[in-house]
Automatic annotation (TrEMBL):
Domain of life: Eukaryota
Keyword Metal-binding found: yes
Pfam families in UniProt: malic (PF00390), Malic_M (PF03949)
GO terms under biological process: malate metabolic process
Protein name from the UniProt record: Malic enzyme
Species of origin: Schistocephalus solidus
UniProt keyword list: Metal-binding
Length: 456
């Protein structure tokens, strides 16, 4: 019997049980009567033929939602959805696209942070590649183990800075899989063109190293030449196996490595760093959009940027350039709108405590500015209108600081960047109470950036 070719962006001669076990091609009860006959599926599926339409949900969608809603916690819901991803990508992505508000927070932020912290409990085989540093010299053969060659976008992480959870080592696979699921659901990139990868270079997370369920390398993170040589081999191997045009997105690397690797490989590889470029663009977009609600022009804003590290400086530079190009401010005027805060307090030139790097010094307050560490005092001194958070800074926006912001600004802007929910700078409830519900809340979730990948 000949084999009719069906695909989710891929042609295959598979039939029967083999076809049903292929998550890219399986569509369950949606196989028509003719397809069931031609593809040797008769008897392997119930009699129901599930015909989906643009206006009505399919039987499988209704069933998936019913099962999902019976689960009591978000981690179990994440696990259920990813098991669907493992077996039937057609209906997994259809479920997301038709139920965006309900499903996206379960497969990505904020739930994905919780899932990464407990990834041994929700991990599924075959979702991506794990490349341990112990396989240095063998990376090409590992990449060739991936079942498809038409890979156009790679999300790679070493798991050092996963959302607000920090160093999760091999558990970073959860964020790589989640991000690429959004590339398909929101940007329409076929899943067979996407490859999640974890570079397992160890972890400095003692809790994981002592956890008998942790499945990554049980050793401290590699550094220096061992790390750099491993990364160099990985980058070269990707272009040899998948071509020079494959997009390699660095995901949740530590800020120091993220900036360095982006600079090192950007000239010769097609690279992108979401945590640096993506975050900066979406924060700026949020500020510009909020202006429609507050009634303030961008040039009228004064910003306190909390938790500034090297990656957040990319946003600061972008904001300064925007103030110059769109608001006709001088470099000096644009920088005067910035009050940057790091783990030592307000960044002031030649401050007595906490060295100021050359990159931060360019945006530091002038000599003679009071050296402050209390966020409320910084908000009051700056007379700011906007308070911008930073990933990995839980409960950093105190009630006193937010109350002060509301006191000095009738329409304060508070941007919360951290996830998961338990590690945010402040909750919406806390902000409403502190500002007497007059502020404009914004938990920035970076979904819209994925639409820019749709031309890949």
């Amino acid at each position: 019997m000949h084999s009719q070719r069906i695909s989710f962006g891929r042609k295959t001669p598979r039939t029967g049980v083999e076809l049903l076990r292929d998550p890219l091609l399986n569509k369950g009860n949606s196989f028509t009567a003719k397809e069931r006959k031609d593809l040797n599926l008769t008897g392997l599926l119930p009699a129901l033929v599930d015909a989906a339409s643009d206006t009505e949900s399919s039987y499988q969608e209704r069933l998936a939602l019913e099962r999902l809603r019976k689960l009591s916690n978000d981690l179990d819901k994440f696990d259920y959805l990813m098991r669907l991803y493992d077996t039937d990508k057609v209906h997994f992505f259809r479920l997301i696209s038709r139920n965006v508000q309900e499903i996206l927070p379960l497969v990505y932020k904020p739930t994905v942070g919780l899932a990464c912290e407990n990834y041994a409990l929700v991990h599924g085989i075959g979702r991506g590649l794990f490349i341990p540093i112990t396989e240095t010299g063998n990376i090409i053969s590992i990449l060739e183990n991936w079942p498809t060659r038409d890979v156009r976008i790679i999300f790679v992480t070493d798991g050092e800075a996963v959302l607000g959870s920090g160093d999760l080592g091999a558990y970073g696979m959860g964020i790589a899989v989640g991000k690429l699921a959004l590339c398909t659901a929101l940007a329409g990139i076929p899943p067979e063109n996407c490859l999640p990868i974890v570079l397992d270079v160890g972890t400095n997370n003692h809790k994981l190293l002592d956890d008998p369920l942790y499945f990554g390398l049980r050793e401290k993170r590699a550094t220096d030449d061992a790390y750099n040589n491993f990364l160099a081999e990985f980058m070269q191997s990707c272009t040899k196996v998948f071509g020079k045009d494959v997009l390699i997105q660095f995901e949740d690397f530590g800020s120091e490595n993220a900036l360095r690797l982006q600079k090192q490989y950007n000239a010769h590889n097609c690279t992108f760093n979401y945590d640096i470029r993506g975050r900066a663009s979406v924060i700026l977009s949020g500020i510009l959009t909020a202006g429609r609600k507050t009634g303030r022009k961008l040039r009228e804003e004064t910003f306190v940027c909390f938790g500034v590290d090297e990656s957040m400086l990319v946003f600061v530079r972008l904001l300064v350039e925007t103030l110059k190009s769109h608001c006709s401010l001088s470099e000096r005027e644009a920088r005067s709108r910035m009050f940057l805060v790091d783990n030592h307090g307000l960044i002031v030139k030649n401050r007595s405590k906490g060295e100021v790097s050359a990159e931060k010094a360019a945006y530091a307050r002038p000599v003679g500015t009071p050296e402050m560490t209390d966020l409320k005092e910084i908000v009051k001194y700056s007379k700011c209108t906007s308070l911008i958070g930073a990933p990995g800074a839980p409960n950093s926006f105190s009630q006193e600081a937010m109350s002060q912001l509301a006191e000095q600004c009738t329409e304060p802007l508070i941007l919360v960047l951290s996830t998961p929910t338990g590690k945010v700078e402040c909750t919406a409830e806390a902000a409403y109470k502190a500002t007497k519900a007059i502020y404009l809340p914004s938990l920035l979730i970076f979904y819209y950036l994925f639409l820019t990948f749709s031309s890949i």
